Amino acid sequence: MSNFTATLLLSSTPRKSPPSTPPPQTIDSTYITETIRDAFSCLCTKVYLNLLLDTWKPLSTDSLSTATAVEVTIIDPTSSGIQIRALKGYSELKEFEYIYNVDVALQEDSVFRKHKRLVVFDMDSTLIEQEVIDELAAFVGVKDKVAAITESAMRGELDFTASLRSRAALLNGVPSDVFTTLKSNGTITFTPGAHELCKALKKLGCKLAVLSGGFQPLAEWVKSSLGLDYAYANTLEVSADGKSLTGVVLGDIVNAERKATLLKEIALKEGVDLRQVVAVGDGANDLVMMREAGFGVAFNAKPKVQEEAPSHLNSRTLRDILYLFGFTAAEVEELVD
C-alpha cells in the first residue's frame, strides 16, 4: 500500500487559464470549504475508483472551516504509484483547480517530504520581483523591446541561450555601475516571504542556492541578503575603460540545462540525495531543474510552466511553500521567529 499527500491551497492570485473546454461555472471561496474537499474526493474516486482519502488536516489554521491550506493523505492500495502520477496530468484535476481557484500539489508521503536538505531557487520573478535584464535595458531606452523577448523566453517560446545573447547585445553602453544603482535606488525588491522562507529553511538545516539566468552581481547580493550558500548566474563583459557594459555574455550561460547540472553538482558536493532537493522557479528554463529535483515548485509561473512542472503554487508569499512540506502555520511561525 502506497501513501501520497495532496496539499490544497487557495490561490491568492488571479485564476490560471482554464482548460481547453471551459467549465460551466467557477466558484469563489475564502477558505478550502467542505464543498471543495468533497469535490476533490469525488474527483479522486471518479478517476481511480480504488484510491482512498484519509483524514483531512488544516495547515494554515487550527480549524478546517477557516483554512486556506489543507492536506489529505491519499492511499493507493495497489502500491503502484502509477495512479497518482497519472492524476497530476488528468484534465479533470486541472478543471477542478480552475473551478475552485485551488492549487493542488501531489507528493509521495515519504520521510523525504519534510526532511529537505537542499533548496535551489531561480532569481528573477522568483526570489526577486523583477526581471533584471529588463531593468538594465531601461538605462539605454530599450526596456519594452527587451521585456517582450524576456516574456516570450520565459513562456518557452524562444531558446533561452539565444534570446539572452540577443537581449544582452541591446545592453551595450549601459553604465558598468548599473547593478549598484539598481540595488541602492529600490528598483530591485524581494518577493514577499523570501526572507522568511530562507530563514525557515536554514533553521531546518537546508543548504540554499540561487541558480539564475540573470547576472552574477545581483545573484551575489541576493545570496548575501538571504543567507544563501551558493550563487550562480551570468557574467556581462565590461568595456576596456571600465565605464560601460559591452552587451557580451562571458563564459557558459546559465540556461535550463546548466541549472540542472549545477543542482546535481551541489547535491553531490553536499552529499544530498536528490529526493531531498527542491527546485523553485517561474520560467520555462526552470523546468529541467525542477524535474531533476525530488520536488519542483512553479511559483506564480507562466501557464506553460504550471502545466509541465511537478507542482505549482500561486501565492502572494514564498513562505507558503512551507505548507507543501506539511508544516502547519504554527510550525512556520516557530521557524521564522
Strand order of the largest sheet: 8-7-6-5-9-10-11
In whole angstroms, how far apart are the ends?
A: 38 Å
Largest beta-sheet details: 7 strands, mixed
- Overall pLDDT score: 90
Which keywords apply here?
337 residues, alpha/beta, Alpha-Beta Plaits, Rossmann fold, 14 helices, 21% strand, globular, magnesium, phosphoserine phosphatase, magnesium ion binding
Give a concise summary.
The protein is of the alpha/beta class and 337 residues long.
Write structural notes for this entry.
With 337 residues, the protein is α/β, with parallel strands linked by helices. It has 2 domains: 1-109, Alpha-Beta Plaits (2-Layer Sandwich); 114-337, HAD superfamily/HAD-like (Rossmann fold). Helix content is 37%, strand content 21%. It is built from 14 helices and 11 strands. The protein has helices at residues 34-47, 82-88, 91-100, 132-137, 143-154, 160-169, 178-184, 194-203, 216-226, 256-270, 287-292, 303-308, 321-324, 329-336, and strands at 2-10, 52-58, 69-76, 102-108, 118-121, 207-215, 230-238, 245-250, 277-281, 295-299, 312-313. It has a 7-stranded mixed sheet with strand order 8-7-6-5-9-10-11, with helices on both faces. Strands 2-3-1-4 form a 4-stranded antiparallel sheet, covered by helices on one side. The radius of gyration is 21 Å and the shape is globular. It starts with a strand and ends with a helix.
